[in-house]
Design brief:
Layout: E1 3-18, H1 20-33, E2 37-48, E3 51-63, E4 68-88, E5 91-110, H2 120-133, H3 135-165
Antiparallel strand pairs: 1-5, 2-3, 3-4, 4-5
Helix pairs in contact: 1-3
Length: about 170
């Protein structure tokens, strides 16, 4: 079985105006441009009295070697999403209003194809391999993944800030 280590976890909250469709597309395109394959594992939408409630879960995977894979998970929760209209530069523009929370998790997966699981001695050797042989490589991959996840969160924050000021 693959070994998963959560390397980074950050939460982003935003309340106010934002265009949900544009944010969704921005995040999807960013991950795609970075070489990740994205799957939407969950999508639920409820209509409540004060607007829509949307829950999403994405898992983005990227192979970095035959042994390692990066995963970035996004858990979205949108509350009270309603259509709104704002005025920018004298023009009316359609957007959304509500509360947004996205949890970003950067996960480093070792032996994602479970090649070292066939018999107990392989599992023992995998422990030695991880601890002594590729430890520095693993630490480099962890640092890069943490940096990548933090960069992604900053990009989304910037997008939301620019979207609110446009």
């Amino acid at each position: 079985m693959a070994e998963k280590n959560e390397i980074a976890k950050q939460e982003l909250k935003h309340k106010g105006f934002f265009n949900f469709a544009e944010l969704y597309t921005f995040c999807f395109e960013w991950l795609k441009d970075e070489g990740y394959k994205i799957s939407e594992d969950n999508y639920t939408e409820k209509i409540a009295g004060n607007g829509k409630e949307i829950k999403l879960k994405w898992v983005a995977k990227k192979k970095i070697s035959d042994y390692f894979r990066n995963e970035i998970e996004l858990s979205w929760h949108v509350l009270g999403l309603t259509d709104a209209e704002i005025e920018r530069d004298g023009k009316k523009e359609k957007t959304n209003k509500g509360e947004l929370k996205i949890v970003f998790r950067g996960i480093l997966v070792r032996d994602y194809e479970s090649r070292w699981e066939d018999n107990p001695s392989y599992k023992f050797f995998r422990g030695i391999y991880d601890k002594y042989i590729i430890r520095t490589t693993m630490e480099e991959y962890e640092d890069k993944l943490k940096e990548k996840t933090e960069n992604f969160v900053e990009q989304v924050k910037s997008f939301l800030t620019l979207e609110g000021k446009r």
